[in-house]
Amino acid sequence: ELANRMKERVADVVKFMMQQGEMIRGIDTLDVDTAELIVEEFGHTIKRVSESDVELGLEGPADADEDMKERPPVVTIMGHVDHGKTSLLDALRQTDVVGGEAGGITQHIGAYQVKVKSGEKITFLDTPGHAAFSAMRARGANITDIVIVVVAVDDGVMPQTIEAIKHAKAADVPIIIAVNKMDKPDADPTKVLTELLQYDVQVESMGGDVQAIHVSALKKTGLTELTEAISMLAEILELKANPDREADGTVIESKLDKGRGPVATVLVQRGTLKRGDIVVAGGQWGKVRALVNERNQQMDKAGPTRPAEILGLDGPPSPGDQFVVVENEARAREITAYRQRMIKNKAASAPSARASLEHMLARLKDGVVTEQAKEAQLVVKGDVQGSIEAITHSLETLSTEEVRARVIYGAVGGISESDILLAKASEAPIIAFNVRANKQALALAEKEGVEIRYYSVIYQLIDDVKATLSGMLAPER
Ligand code: GDP
Q1: C-alpha distances out from residue 132 to 17, 112, 181, 338, 436, Å
Q2: Which residues lie closer than 8 Å to 8 by C-beta, 6 or more apart?
Q3: Across 141-247, where does the E strand assignment appear?
Q4: Where is the Tr-type G domain (predicted)?
Q5: Rounded distance between C-alpha atoms, residue 459 and residue 433, angstroms
Q6: How far is the CA of 86 from the centre of ligand 1 (A)?
Q7: Which of 14, 148, 171, 346 has its CA 20 to 30 A from that of 112?
Q8: Beta bridge partners of residue 179, listed in sequence order
Q9: What ipTM, to 2 d.p.?
Q10: Closest ligand 1 atom, CA of 128?
């Protein structure tokens, strides 16, 4: 990297370092003094920039008004469990008119786009539920334009219905009410709509401005009315983006695919993403080798609010991570190296001790640590990015007055030696969800005193950590 920047040959720089008696140890980064020495030796001027300057200019220039074009809305479905979120997402998938010729929506990639009869396009985020929505928001990714709150007509407003309304209001996202299961005998939507008044949701028939649509996800009725309601609201919201620029957007989902390697579903928010572009997504980068849509078809490009799987990244980024197209590989390497350093620094800033949950809590209880450090740090490794996100979110809500749980690092894949070292450095135990440690990692964990807890059911994991947290902190008799 340094040779590149100086426009010198790598071999010359390496040779110089050998002459100085410095062995280059493959992965090492140069310390500042060595770098300075080399730069001076080669007759170049040094310009010191601060670490964070690396990210400067990433977002590119602002868009001019005349470049802004209409874009499809992004819709998330929320509501109480069993009120029909999944069924509605399935039913809406079939409202797609492109399906016939081009093959239906066959893949779950975290989001899909339909073209409805009237010609408008709508993008649906395909992970129902509130955890996904808040996890995204917590990372600063406000990607939803409209929330559909599903309420089953026979069940009415329930706790998670209220939560969904609160989430949408907190994010300042307008809602549409879908009164579902209208096929049920004696279905009375008025009761539901009246209940909603208590939660500050006034539907049109009650003199308010919130649209309420009667649907049956089962019998597929009311779906056209629902998509029309979405398009109408989208028009009022005047959703626009500039399609003619380098793309950026948000990672929706990611996984490590056995055959295809790291695969990330991204939602383009500005610009147009093209095959061959070099992207940085969170702490990962790569050249976009392929763009695949929800019909499992290859695409050449993806414009604003088009969901697409991208292949070619060097690792799976996290949902909620921003992605951005950069000018070349050197720039991509520089940004990701900086970001990974930041993650490591954050994780390694704690002093070392035995990395087990009990030990950590014992120390908290003894008052060995300072007030602000009363934080149970955890490392989470899991099989898919989605479960890591869900676990992280649940663990972080476990916090009590005495102690706060915080996931300092979460990643997809088996437990490796570097995970053990990271955990050890932060005195954090490792929570393993549907993954195991390899032999070397196990040996290292034993040697370094890093605890690994294995789970395959999320609620057991949560219960167990919760029990440990509260048990260890209970007053002694
Ligand atoms: P979710 O938990 O909100 O995702 O709800 P699901 O989509 O899994 O639906 C929960 C249950 O309600 C399932 O047994 C569905 O078959 C049923 N269901 C969903 N929509 C309808 C509907 O419109 N009418 C009827 N009668 N049942 C429905």
Answers
A1: 49, 16, 24, 27, 25
A2: 42
A3: 146-152, 175-180, 212-214, 240-241
A4: 70-238
A5: 11
A6: 7
A7: 171
A8: 151, 214
A9: 0.99
A10: 4
Which tokens go with 53? 């300057």
Q: Please enumerate, as own/partner, the contacts of 114-117 that have beta carbons within 8 Å and a separation of 24 or more.
A: 114/227, 116/224, 116/227, 116/228, 116/231, 117/224
Rg of the chain's alpha carbons, rounded to an integer? 26
State the Cα–Cα distance between residues 165 and 201, nearest whole angstrom.
8
Per-residue pLDDT tens digits for 327-360: 999 889 988 888 887 777 655 543 333 566 666 6
371-398, pLDDT tens digit by residue? 444 677 888 999 888 888 889 888 888 7
Count Cβ neighbours within 10 Å for each residue of 277-300 and write b for 16 or more, e otherwise. bbbbbbbbbbbbeebbbbbeeebe
Contact 279, 324 (CB under 8 A): yes
214 lines ligand 1 (CB under 6 A): no
Q: Say whether 83 counts as a known binding-site residue.
A: yes
Q: What residue type is assigned to position 27 of the chain?
A: I
Tokens in use for 413?
């894949």
| Whether 151 contacts 123, CB under 8 Å | no
Ligand 1 centroid from CA 24, angstroms? 61
The pTM assigned to this predicted structure is 0.66
Give ∠ CA 130-308-70 in degrees, rounded to 5.
Answer: 85
pLDDT per position as a tens digit, 15-40: 887 777 655 554 456 766 677 778 88
* Dihedral angle computed from the Cα positions of residues 400, 406, 412 and 414, in that order, rounded to the nearest 10 degrees: -80
| Dist. CA 434–CA 80, nearest whole Å | 27
CA distances 416 to 291, 406, 432, 440, 447, Å, are 30, 21, 11, 8, 14
Q: Maximum CA pair distance of the chain?
A: 88
- Judge whether 445 and 420 are in contact, CB under 8 Å: yes
Work out the average pLDDT over 194-223.
95
Please check if 129 is assigned to a binding site.
Answer: yes
Among the listed residues 282, 285, 308, 297, the one whose alpha carbon sits nearest the alpha carbon of residue 113: 308
pLDDT given at position 349: 46
Query: Is there a contact between 150 and 196 (Cβ–Cβ < 8 Å)?
Result: no
